[in-house]
Records
---
Amino acid sequence: NAGVTQTPKFRILKIGQSMTLQCTQDMNHNYMYWYRQDPGMGLKLIYYSVGAGITDKGEVPNGYNVSRSTTEDFPLRLELAAPSQTSVYFCASRPGQNTDTQYFGPGTRLTVL
Amino acid sequence: KQEVTQIPAALSVPEGENLVLNCSFTDSAIYNLQWFRQDPGKGLTSLLLIQSSQREQTSGRLNASLDKSSGRSTLYIAASQPGDSATYLCAVRGGGTGTASKLTFGTGTRLQVTL
């Protein structure tokens, strides 16, 4: 049981490039989340999903896209990377509506130059 | 819009001391409050979750209290150890639906426990 895994751990992008941050959980959790954490700041919600095929915007969705084709995977797509997207990205999951505890992945540190 | 503040931003204490971390939030209409631990280069680990109807939760040397009406929570760590060194974040879940029911995080308190 690996929990929530994220790849890659680190990435440097040039302005205008695109990439996909991968997130996988093996706990059969329905809910999954993407957050970003800027230096010295709290986490901000980008997108979330309450089950396969269902996604919704969070607090800061601009510049990102997500998909949820399976329960296990919740990739985050960055199109036309900008320096403002330099951050640490965390994926999290939780079992369902009756449990509030979220389980976090180790994060992806992204730098856009 | 919910705002969560944590004071102090950083704290250094000698091993063995008892300490209190503070968290305040602007909108008292919350569903619950969580305290998380974040180690450098790692994700967050949930420590304690307090429902809005509860006053406190305890786990080992950790005790979290909640005063919803005043918009405050404290995390008490007894007999601190060097292994407690980490950043501690609090997060509140709103009482509404959609994005309003999602977690709003504070900026964290970076704790260092020295020998």
---
Amino acid sequence: AQTVTQSQPEMSVQEAETVTLSCTYDTSESDYYLFWYKQPPSRQMILVIRQEAYKQQNATENRFSVNFQKAAKSFSLKISDSQLGDAAMYFCAYRSPEKLVFGKGTKLTVNP
Amino acid sequence: DTGVSQDPRHKITKRGQNVTFRCDPISEHNRLYWYRQTLGQGPEFLTYFQNEAQLEKSRLLSDRFSAERPKGSFSTLEIQRTEQGDSAMYLCASSLARDKPYEQYFGPGTRLTVT
């Protein structure tokens, strides 16, 4: 079974700085999708960014980018120019094959 | 497009009672998923539907849980004889199974507290 591991329960960053959240996963498949979801306090989960395993190019969405290392099964999220509104729980997820398998999450605090 | 909606948002019930939650997916989405999220954990898959057919159920879904999606539109999740361990956030998500990457869009969740 696929597993997703987020080794950082909590992270903090100063406003306008850059932070990287780590995620590793385990799979025997060669083609799959990875996602980062954001869950603000008491608000619904929203998709931040996705990566298709067959694409070598790292995905980017505005201030959010990923470092996808397929051989190492690593999928980290980099948030540049952090904003107060980025404070949330961040979940890494693997699509397997129809359902999502989530990590335990990383709580990101943004300090003004 | 109003997004995925769930009702109720909060439910407090006594142990042993039955509860039912409703999820309305995004209108054109033919796939609907249920997840459970306990405090400090990521969501865990429970079950999913494509149209009205329930295609996969997790081992987490005990006999006390049942989900339906009549007519392939809204879905209900019923928990019979609730236990304190059922206290959690129940999340619904939907997606359009036509083109990859089958992104799932989540609702706000129903928070269940069993006393």
